[in-house]
Design a protein that fits this description.
By secondary structure, the protein is of the alpha/beta class. It is 41% helix and 15% strand. The chain is built from 12 helices and 9 strands. Bound molecules: zinc ion. Zinc ion binds next to loops.
């Protein structure tokens, strides 16, 4: 029933933009940050996830990131990622804005992905500015505890957004633009606690759009959502795809 309610909203309210957080990847075996069993319960973010910590002791930060990068590259997209890619392919989803750095949306087949917290796709040398692809970083990590820049020797910084760091140029602007244009913002697996992403639902609502939320646990926007589903993204989203398979996206069709 809940999946059908979301499917109906998606069919009626185009364009639909999706906003995903850590909850969409937990079913791929990737721990989230803020839950009691999350990463920040084990690792102090100020010691392992901040720009200041990286500048002070990059080797220590890499003691956290090296196993994390290994885990992220070994993880596979789950049914939630695959369902979102299918919704885009069917014309029901314009873009996915994600807080996740794990590349799983892209690997599942999503094409329009806005990574507002960066990703592990590349790492940049703070010394000389050279940028390296993940594959090269993994090669360097195979031989050392932290990847040193082959050009200058400085330890590379993953191109993920650390605490105390600005969001990647252009990405949050693009996310805000998408949220304003969306007649439906579908939030999946985010508690909407981390700014500025937490402000995106307000952009959609303020422009007259609707909000739907699939999340385990409450969010500050629950009362303003047209549909609110307490549940697993990996179960709900495939059911949404099934419900939409016979439908045509209304607005998108009209616009063509
Ligand atoms: Zn360098």
């Amino acid at each position: 029933m809940e999946a059908e309610a979301i499917a109906e909203l998606i069919a009626r309210r185009q364009p639909c933009v999706v906003l995903t957080g850590a909850g969409v990847s937990t079913e791929s075996g990737i721990p989230d940050f803020r839950s009691p069993t999350g990463l920040w319960a084990q690792f102090d973010p100020l010691e392992y996830g901040s720009l200041e910590a990286f500048r002070r002791d990059p080797l220590k930060v890499w003691s956290f990131y090296k196993p994390r990068v290994a885990m992220l590259t070994e993880a596979e997209p789950n049914p939630a990622h695959l369902a979102l890619a299918e919704l885009e392919r069917l014309g029901f989803v314009e873009a996915v804005v994600t807080q996740n750095i794990d590349l799983l949306h892209e690997r599942a087949g999503s094409r329009e992905v806005v990574e507002v917290h960066g990703s592990i796709r590349t790492a940049t040398c703070p010394g000389c500015g050279a940028r390296y692809e993940l594959e090269r970083v993994l090669e360097l990590l195979a031989e050392a505890d932290a990847p040193a820049c082959p050009a200058c020797g400085a330890l590379l910084k993953p191109d993920v957004v650390f605490f105390g760091e600005l969001l990647p140029a252009g990405s949050i602007e693009r996310a805000v633009e998408l949220a304003r244009r969306a007649r439906l913002l579908l939030v999946v697996g985010s508690a909407l606690e981390v700014h500025p992403v937490a402000g995106l639902p307000q952009e959609t609502l303020g422009a007259g759009g609707d909000l739907a939320i699939v999340n385990r646990g409450p969010t500050p926007y629950d009362a303003r959502a047209s549909v609110r589903v307490e549940g697993s993204a990996g179960e709900v989203l495939p059911a949404v795809v099934e419900a939409l398979r016979c439908e045509q996206p209304q607005q998108a069709q009209d616009a063509r």
